[in-house]
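User: Sequence in, structure out. Go.
Assistant: Echoing your sequence, followed by the structure tokens.
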Amino acid sequence: MKGVCQNQSSHWARFARPRPVSTYTCQSVLLMNRIAPFFSVVRLAASVGLLASCLLFCGCSKDTGSAVSDQEARAKMKAAVRMQQWQEAWSYREAVLRTHGEDSATLATLAKVAHANNLPGETADLLMQSCRAESFKRESRVQQAMIAMISVGRLMDGLGFLEEAVAERPKQYQTRRWLYDFYGGTEDRPSAVPHGRVLVLARRFDVELLKSLSNTQRRSLDVSPLQQMVDRNPDDTRPLVGSAKIDFDAGDNEKAIETLNQILERYPEFLPAQVLVGRSYVAAGMNDQVRPWASKQKQRLNGYSGYWIAVADWARSQSKTEQAVRAYWEAATLDVDNSEAWTKLATSAAQLSQETGQVSEQVVQSIQQRASLLSKFEQHKSRFERSGGISRQIVLQIVETLSALGRPWEAEAWTVVAARLPEDDSVSIEDARQRLLKQLKADTPWQITAGNPALSVDLSYLPLPEIVSQPEDAALPSDASSLEMHPSSELRLVNEAEQRGLAFFGKTSDTLDQAGIMLHETLGCGGASIDYDLDGWTDLYLVGAGGKPAQNHSQPNALFRNQLGSFQAVTDRTQTAETGFGQGVAVGDVNEDGFPDLLVLNYGPNRLYINNGDGSFSDQSDALPNNQDSQAWSTSAAIVDLDGDGLSDIIVVNYCDGLEPSTYACSTGESEVVRSCSPMRFKGSLDFFLRSRGDGTFSDQLQDWGATPEIRGRGLGILAGQLDQRPGIDLYIANDMTNNHYWSRDSGSQAFRLAESAMLRGVAADDRANAQGSMGIAGGDLDQDGDFDLYVTNFEKEYNSFYVKQPGGTWLDQTASLGLLQPTVPLVGFGTQAVDLDRDGQRELIVTNGHVDLFSRGGEQSLYAQPMQIFQRHGGQYNEVHQRMPGNYLGAPHVGRSLWTIDANRDHRCDLVVTHQTEPVALLINHSQPTGDWIELELYGRSCSRDPIGAAVHLEYGGQSKSHRVTGGSGYLCSNDRVVRMAIETDSGSEDAKPRKARFCRVVIEWPDGARQELAPFLLNHRYIVVQHSTYVL
């Protein structure tokens, strides 16, 4: 029996159902005692079979000295037990309970009898009575009782029992750990955290406890054991809260609400479900449900941080910034470790400070400091987990961040964890631990407020959200969107690459259709639109790879000249056949001579091709500092005048550091076939910030410009422009699995320096402060309110994020309310663009999807080829329209990667280029029926850079006002064509729709150097070249 129990304990998943046995051993109890402290709620709940097979009633439980009773019932019961006459023994239970109902040993014997008679409910009740009778003296019996309760699905009742036990016996740490795990598993963080802190202070912790203690974000625990509780006890649906949280995390709010209402119908007092249903109502935009919920539950839920986040999110969605700040402050005060609460408080407080001054700049800065530290901690912890949980270096970063947050006990506990990890001579964990031990005294609080001014901030003077302070039946605000759109005509995209002579298959490996893809082979290859000969027909430069990183034997890149809509390879003639391990390409006028140049981004040395103006290029890569022997993994870049001196600088986005990602193979443990490693397995890389000297060379400005982030990114996409409508160029960088970066000029420095502020602006992560696997970026005035919105693609089981520009230089994640969340969760988004395909004045969102490999994970087969998605906006919602669009390309899945714009046939409709992993490049010609008028502009600077990145174009016509901001970088591994396209919506019933000989619009250009140019009336449906202070019709 001992051998059986040991084997079963190592394969806990086999014990999802109890199996009756008739014998028990002391060894099985001791085995459980060794294993249980390390059980998470998942493993413990799944191991209930130990009740029957290894644990429940072993012979080491002895009657401790009570005299033999003279009463006949108990004596006969014991005799029957010795003879294993279980039914006879059970027949004496009532008499025994009347005379010995307070005797712990007798109750334990009765529990044994109940179990032998297959009466699990009575078994659990008797074991609990036995524990209470002896004041929970025996921890092993407490655990037996809890497992008995789990076996019949009474997990939630068992929580109260365990609370009794630890209240009576505070030093029963194993019981407390079980209680902590169960609370965490049932989404009751406020109840779990105090027990977790006691365990840390008592030195009864492990790395799993430390990781979960600070987890305020996504649920990581399996929910199947909780479902088993409901299967065993269908009357108690409370454990379903775990499944509801999974659905809420995935953005499936309707499913979460359905499950939560099922729980609350029977258990309205179950507070974790009440908190979560409120958050789901808000996320789903169900205002008719939010108000009665918030008002009714205030008294019961005001101690839950999640309640205040919910009402704050509602206030924020209604543009009630004062109320949102107050509620986020309540949430952050209740849970000082909650990264989401502090991040949202930081963004909202900064907005309120700029709008009304009701929050001082000093207070905003203190809040921002804590939010930044919490975000930093979450990212370090995430990297530690995803890189295998073995890095002392990462643990040291965790320790340093926790110390800065004023959490010394937690920091010291992490040093203990680090000491058990593999040796690393470069990391002195013991020194860090000794420094902490010198600070710690018996009376040192868990959270130190000194040095953490945000914890002393008082914002109680701000008004509470009205849904909390007003009656349930008060009038609700209208949900009507200010943006009303007319239904667009049929959209149609046709792949005409072959017909137009565009034959190119850029790929990172020859075996991308097979399992065993390495990380460096997953990103694909990009390309760019470039009118290199300035003939007005946009050409294409396409990137290849396939060799080894940092070497020059990959597939050559190719340049295709556009000849009246057909493409001819001119690579050799133009001398642009780069053979490095290509990833992306950037286009810009590097030397300010009026001709566009090429910067090829490689895994290894990058290549700079300068346009000679005669149809050829010169390799001037030596102008790039530290490039010749580079092992950098460059992906995307922007060529833009960042420091405002009139000369184009270069910003290169880099991914993982060094060559190890191209040589280190990962496996699932289930197969010998390698798979792509998580990028978190490798150190992130610093990006390149290169300033033009004006003589054709560049200097490394990383340090001088202060462009070193607190957390290195793994950059994949970049967008450059005047994104926040303030003077100066901003850089938005999409990072994989860590916070995105937003760089802008540091207004507090006299010299030119940069400051990173993505988290404070609301564009670092998703709406709940979770860093995502970000890749592509699209931008523009997507809601037609005159400012610049952002759209970012992400990995599967996340969602592509839609950030709506707010006043004061911040953005708000409104993905869910726009109907864009759920459709993108199952897919892996790479390239994306915002394009007005049918010229109705509203841009469609286009995303190319495809998984990183075709390997299965955790029993799930990855969907390698995935559909391209096109989202069209009507009113306040986006709808998927690609399913009903004609054409073979959109009707089939693809392993898509980069996506960029071109007008290949000069019909003034925007076309698209798409690269793939398993098929040649696609040229999607736009055959959509246009519904409006248009104007096209090519802009060239004089007193500013020739490429006027950051310029703003404002157009007015017939009561309509449109804005367009010129950007560089273009997103993922690519460069768009540089034509400014603006459409004017035509109402078929209006005067403007009637035929006219000439229709004019008013155009105003704000140049990056601050110059403002109001142009003479322009004819609609024409293309213009605008040189700063001059105008030419093309």
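User: And one key feature?
Assistant: The longest helix spans residues 361-386.
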